[in-house]
Amino acid sequence: MKTKTDARQLDGATQAHLRKMVVQAVVGGMTQTAAAHTFGVSLRAISNWMKRSREGGLRSLRQGKRGRRPGSGRLDHPQAVRIRKLIIERMPDQLALPFYLWTRESVAQLIEREYGIKVSAWTVGRYLKAWGMSAQKPVRRAYERTDASIARWLNEDYPQIAKEAKREKATIYWGDEMGLRSDHISGTSFALKGQTPVVRATGQRFGCNMISAITNRGALNFMVFEGKFRNATFIEFLKRMLKQASHKIYLIVDGHPVHRSRAVRRFVADHAQRLRLIQLPGYCPELNPDELLNQDVKTNALGKTRPTSKAEMIDGVRRHLHRRQKEPHVIRNLFKEKHVRYAA
Which residues cross the membrane (predicted)? Predict the structure, then answer.
């Protein structure tokens, strides 16, 4: 069976000779279909060659310069390295581009601005894949956070805290609080394309709050409560922890005003032999492993259920946390996540 010739694999002179023979055969009376079968080329190629010959004669079928046109070439290695570095280290708005996130369109505009080379979105996609990049949901970070304080916490402060806790035979807990709402939905649901699935739930809005503390050994303390998070609430939680603890507690929390209140500081000072309260650097919740427990509760205790009342919601959250207390391996696994692995 005769196959079509891939003219791109022929040298320039052979290509020009083939084009000339095909055009002359068609002009001499052969149909384009017959010419395609005889010479083993595609109908599309013959159609293009006939158009070129009509507009410029047989001279237009001669061998020309091969390669990309000036200004349309691919990025060379140094250019590619620089564009990749810019994407990794900066966001589009930091480079004065009218985009918020890195997309194929924004990368194409960056390449054109920096080197005057126009590339398609498809080509940009191939670049990004070759550079080891993929489309990912970005993580929100506050402008107020300081990289220096975070680096100091990771390299100096926490290692010192861990050393002191070991010397005092204390247990390091990571604590946090969060609010839960009845209209929270998480996860995905299969449905026909173009038909967004509808979740039926009560139109009433209600909520509750929880405070928890976990260790890298799998221990979990929690308290579910109603109303605002106040000094008395946090102190009650600390009392419960002290009642259950057999060793001194190092509790690491964020900079919530309650944690820094005068009443809490007084309570901690009164129990300094058994309790130490430590504050994380500001605006860096990703450093707190307890944030991952919060996400677990939102996803598995609330997001996939439809409570019809506040009492039902509170009961569901408590049952989920009681179950997690009996699954220390699940709590330990939280410390394997990239941003909190330092605390494992």
Answer: none
Condensed to tens digits (0 to 9), the pLDDT of residues 220-231 reads: 999 999 999 999
Asked if the structure places residue 28 within a domain, the reply is yes
- Please report whether residue 172 resides in a domain: yes
What would the pLDDT profile of 43-54 be if each residue is shown by its tens digit? 888 888 888 888
| Residue-number span of the structural domain to which 86 is assigned | 77-130
Quickly count: other Cβ atoms within 10 Å of residue 148's Cβ: 9
* Selection from 284, 221, 215 nearest residue 254 by Cα: 284
Would you state the pLDDT for residue 190?
Answer: 67
Write out the two tokens for 340: 């909190």
Q: Domain count for the chain, please give it.
A: 3
207 and 101 in a common domain? no
Each as own residue / partner, the long-range contacts of residues 272-278 (CB below 8 Å, 24 or more positions apart, any chain) are 273/248, 274/242, 274/245, 274/248, 274/249, 275/238, 275/241, 275/242, 275/248, 275/249, 275/251, 276/170, 276/248, 276/249, 276/250, 276/251, 277/251, 277/253, 278/161, 278/250, 278/251, 278/252, 278/253
Mean pLDDT for 26-44 is 88
Scored b (16 or more CB within 10 A) or e, 9-46 reads eeeeeebbebbeebbebbeeebebeebbeebebeeebb
Neighbours of 168 (CB within 10 A): 13
**pTM for this entry:** 0.65
Q: Assign residue 321 a region (left: φ > 0; alpha: ψ between -120 and 50; beta: otherwise).
A: alpha
Distance CA 34, CA 127 (A): 41
Burial 186-216 (b: 16+ CB within 10 A, else e): eeeeeeeeeeeeeeeeeeeebebbbbbbbbb
Q: 6: part of which helix (H) or strand (E)?
A: none
Return mean pLDDT, the chain. Answer: 88
Taking residue 338's Cβ as centre, other Cβ atoms within 10 Å add up to 7
Indicate the angle between helix axes 104-115 and 77-89, nearest 10 degrees. Answer: 130
What CATH code is carried by the domain that includes residue 299?
Answer: 3.30.420.10
In 3D space, the residue among 4, 73, 69 whose CA is nearest the CA of residue 33 turns out to be: 4
* Residue 141 located in a structural domain: no
